[in-house]
Design goal:
Blueprint lengths: L1 E7 L3 E3 L15 H14 L6 H9 L5 E3 L8 E9 L6 H4 L8 H6 L5 E10 L4 E6 L6 H13 L10 E5 L8 E3 L10 E5 L4 H13 L12 E7 L7 E2 L7 E7 L9 H16 L5 H6 L14 E6 L10 E7 L6 H14 L7 E4 L5 E6 L13 H5 L2 E6 L3 E2 L11 H15 L7 E5 L27 E13 L15 E3 L32 H5 L4
Parallel strand pairs: 11-20
Antiparallel strand pairs: 1-6, 1-7, 2-5, 3-6, 4-5, 8-10, 9-10, 12-14, 12-16, 13-14, 15-16, 17-20, 17-21, 18-20, 19-20
Length: about 525
């Protein structure tokens, strides 16, 4: 085993994401670390065996990675304005034929200034590490690599001051390379060194110094898929991948809220099906049906409403929509869905207009803003961060109708919610509490949502709001029940510090919607009330 570790001395890492210049790169790509080693060798080529050691390192398999987790609040993009270089116009060069005021010349007043951004992640004093489990360098190669590590001053931007060393006892890897095709295992795509990378960088540097290569045309290198190490992944996940395709609302008619969300979900699914134009397998992944009309036997795409809820003055109006893809989706199927989504939007305006009759009209655009600058409802982490406790934003539709005679309908309904979790491969919740309203302020009561009808006989399915607590953390999105593909059953993490009090159908929460406990105290069955059936 061979490992290289480093620490950011200022507690921050400044490096731009290669795909989004306004987004910090985290975790750091292994190829960025390799380039830092190459730069150290370039500063001191007299390091014996330096080239040989780098060529040995680039021939190794992609390394595993240890990097601390960071929240959205730890990411920052700073914009500054810097003056451009002096003009090369002939007037300036013509022996003072054109006079400039000394003050303007000395202070650079009047010169244009261009914006420059610094994308930064704050990580504190945590160490990072690259681990090659099957690599074992020769003693002279190890010595040379240790000398190169000692010469590294920064990884990424020069503001990312770094101390680097060869680590004899590396920690357990957090991220590891994967060749599996399921989305659930391809959490990251990182650039890695590869055979010939050193020679490629040398050629690019020579071309750059002679003016034959622009700074932004630097060779990217090879990409490798990374997933969380399974042995250390104590977080359970359901049927849907945590990488959502988010679309923000930019206009429309009316003021559609959560009660109108099911109609808008159907409108968006219809628009995507139209864009699929009969192409398989994308059409099946969007519609949920095979080409012959039979139900699709695997998880398929779910359209999610993204409302403004959970704040003091929240009213539940829709801020956008999202598309959640199955975690087991292959690369080819994933690309097919992406192509359909691209075709659904107007190629000139980038707008998708959803028309849902009396429910209103919604104009959507792809959400491309930095995660931290979006409204809370449009942040992926709002719906996908790991949590042991979850609450419904839209009610869960039960898979079965209740038996004609049952001593405790509340317990039966809670059991159906637990079964909905198990069907997605999740553990059954430790506790399920049914509610007449959502735990989030602004979400409508169960009665406000139109009931889903059972296809064979048109019977109205029951739907309930709920608060779920698991023994272990669960990674979102959490979408449960028979209506999970129609806008129902959308859950959001809740604070784990709140304590339940009262009976099985009442809940005391600081962030609960008003009247949650009082509405459940009537003489009629609480589950019957929440089903919207009078």
């Amino acid at each position: 085993m061979f490992a290289i570790a480093w620490r950011y001395l200022a507690g921050r890492a400044t490096a731009k994401d290669i795909g989004d210049q306004h987004k910090p790169e985290w975790p750091p790509h292994p190829d960025r670390v390799f380039q830092a080693l190459v730069a150290a060798w370039g500063e001191d080529e007299c390091i014996q065996k330096g080239r040989e050691a780098l060529e040995w390192l680039e021939r190794q398999d992609a390394p595993s990675l240890v990097a601390p987790e960071v929240t959205d609040g730890a990411r920052c993009v700073t914009r500054v304005y810097v003056p451009v270089n002096d003009s090369n116009d002939q007037a300036w060069k013509s022996q003072n034929k054109v006079k400039f005021a000394p003050l303007m010349r000395d202070l650079a007043i009047g010169r244009d200034r261009q914006p420059r951004t610094f994308a930064t992640v704050y990580i504190g004093d945590a160490d990072c590490c690259l681990i090659w489990p099957k690599a074992e360098p020769a003693p002279d190669q190890r010595t040379a690599l240790a000398a190169l590590c000692a010469g590294v001053t920064h990884v990424g931007h020069s503001r990312s001051l770094t101390r680097m060393w060869v680590e004899d006892q590396p920690p357990t890897a957090v991220w590891e390379p994967t060749t599996e095709t399921g989305r659930s295992r391809r959490d990251l795509m990182l650039r890695v060194p590869h055979p010939g990378r050193l020679a490629c960088l040398e050629q690019a540097y020579a071309a750059f110094t002679h003016g034959r290569l622009a700074r932004n045309a630097w060779p990217v290198g090879q990409w490798c898929a990374y997933g969380r190490r399974r042995a250390d992944n104590r977080v359970r996940r359901g049927a849907f991948d945590s990488r959502l395709l988010v679309f923000r609302r930019t206009g429309g008619e009316g003021a559609p809220g959560l009660a109108q969300a099911p109609a808008l979900v159907r409108a968006m699914r219809a628009a995507l099906m139209c864009a699929a134009d009969g192409g398989a397998p994308a059409l099946s992944l969007i519609s949920g049906h095979e080409a012959d009309g039979q139900p699709f036997q695997r998880p398929h795409a779910a359209v999610l409403p993204l409302p403004h809820v959970g704040r003091e003055h929240a009213d539940g109006h829709l801020l956008g929509m999202a598309l959640a893809l199955p975690a087991s989706l292959s690369s080819d199927d994933e690309q097919a869905v992406y192509d359909v989504v691209a075709r659904a939007f107007d190629p000139e305006t980038g707008v998708l207009t959803l028309r849902a009759g009396v429910a209103g009209t919604l104009r959507l655009e792809q959400e491309d803003r930095l995660e931290t600058t979006r409204p809370v409802a449009l942040r992926t982490g709002t719906w996908t961060r790991e949590s042991r406790r979850w609450g419904t934003v839209t009610p869960i539709v039960l898979d079965r109708l209740p038996p004609r005679r049952h001593d405790d309908q509340n317990a039966w309904a809670a059991g159906q919610v637990a079964e909905a979790c198990r069907r997605q491969g999740l553990p059954a919740p430790r506790e399920v509490r049914l509610l007449p309203v959502s735990p989030f302020v602004g979400a409508p009561t169960s009665r406000a949502f139109p009931p889903l009808l059972r296809k064979p006989d048109g019977a109205r399915r029951w739907h309930v709001h709920a608060d779920l607590c698991f023994e272990e953390a669960v990674l979102g999105p959490l979408i449960l029940g028979a209506g999970r593909y129609q806008g129902y059953g959308l859950c959001r993490p809740l604070p784990e510090v709140a304590e339940w009090t009262g009976s099985a159908d009442s809940l005391a929460l600081d962030d609960a919607a008003p009247g949650a406990a009082a509405s459940a105290s009537g003489g009629e069955s609480a589950a019957h009330q929440r089903a919207g059936m009078s």
